[in-house]
Amino acid sequence: MRILVCKNYDEMSKKAAQIISSQVILKSDSILGLATGSTPIGMYKNLVDMYNKGEIDFSEVKTFNLDEYYQLPKDNIQSYYYFMHKNLFNHINIKKENINIPNGMNGDVEIECASYDEAIKNIGGVDIQVLGIGNNAHIGFNEPNDAFIKNTHLVDLKESTIEANSRFFDSIDDVPKKAVTMGIGSIFASKKIMLLASGECKAEAVYNTVYGDVTPQVPSSILKFHNDVILIIDEAAATKLNKEDYKLI
Ligand code: GLP
């Protein structure tokens, strides 16, 4: 696990966008695994700027998003479908048919989950998966649990996640209680993983990811078992790490 620590959120966002852009320059038909949440917004902004300057072309790129709320329509401004279009897809030349986001409205959620994993497998796997991290160390919506769940699945959100995400909704009662998320196996099928974290509220989750035992109670801890993971975090998120374990950039 390589750890790069950037001065602040803006620097982290720039670095993350540079890594995605290098991936797309090296392989124009890259498969990107994308994440939502407030953390990657700056990265998406940088990617849009790079696109506007003609530095990056998304015409052959395909994307798979990590997760989506269950039973929240696409046009709800809190849906991850809406988020991705607002922050990235509406501003770049990606083809509509190359965008994949779990459909939380599918009446048959089991079929939805199985076909999502199948689609990732058929395409040969994701080249680089972007991850944020929850305060409770969830990745995607893989919540602390008694076991790691391999495949894309329907999950009951933890109270702490509902509370954390309620900041985006009018009231906590509006936050969906369930979501569809790629499982740990689906995430691990990615060739590279880039986890972003910003702010002191993530420092403990980052500490547990780096130094803690691998346990489903700390979902991100499993990342130690993947052979190509890079953490791009800011100084605030790195406050609990030993200085010799990361590179300050
Ligand atoms: C959400 C998303 C995750 C995200 C996490 C952290 O619940 N499902 O993919 O990483 O919360 O969000 P934020 O970046 O806003 O702290």
Q: Helices, strands, pairings?
A:
Layout: E1 2-6, H1 9-26, E2 31-34, H2 41-52, E3 62-65, E4 67-69, H3 80-87, E5 99-100, H4 109-122, E6 128-131, E7 153-156, H5 159-165, E8 178-181, H6 184-188, E9 192-197, H7 203-211, E10 229-234, E11 247-248
Bound molecules: 2-amino-2-deoxy-6-O-phosphono-alpha-D-glucopyranose.
2-amino-2-deoxy-6-O-phosphono-alpha-D-glucopyranose (GLP) binds next to helix 5.
GO molecular function, one term: glucosamine-6-phosphate deaminase activity
EC number: 3.5.99.6
Protein name: Glucosamine-6-phosphate deaminase
The helicity comes to 25-40%
Q: Describe the main β-sheet briefly.
A: 8 strands, parallel
What ligand molecules are bound, each kind once? Answer: 2-amino-2-deoxy-6-O-phosphono-alpha-D-glucopyranose
- Please provide the count of β strands: 11
Q: Could you give the order of the helices and strands?
A: EHEHEEHEHEEHEHEHEE
Q: Describe the global form.
A: globular
* Radius of gyration from CA coordinates: 17 Å
First-residue to last-residue Cα separation: 16 Å
Beta-sheet strand percentage? Answer: 15-25%
Class based on secondary structure composition and strand pairing: alpha/beta
Identify the strand order in the major beta sheet. Answer: 5-3-2-6-9-10-1-11
What average pLDDT do the residues reach? 97
Number of helices: 7
Q: Residue ranges: pLDDT <50 for 5 or more in a row?
A: none
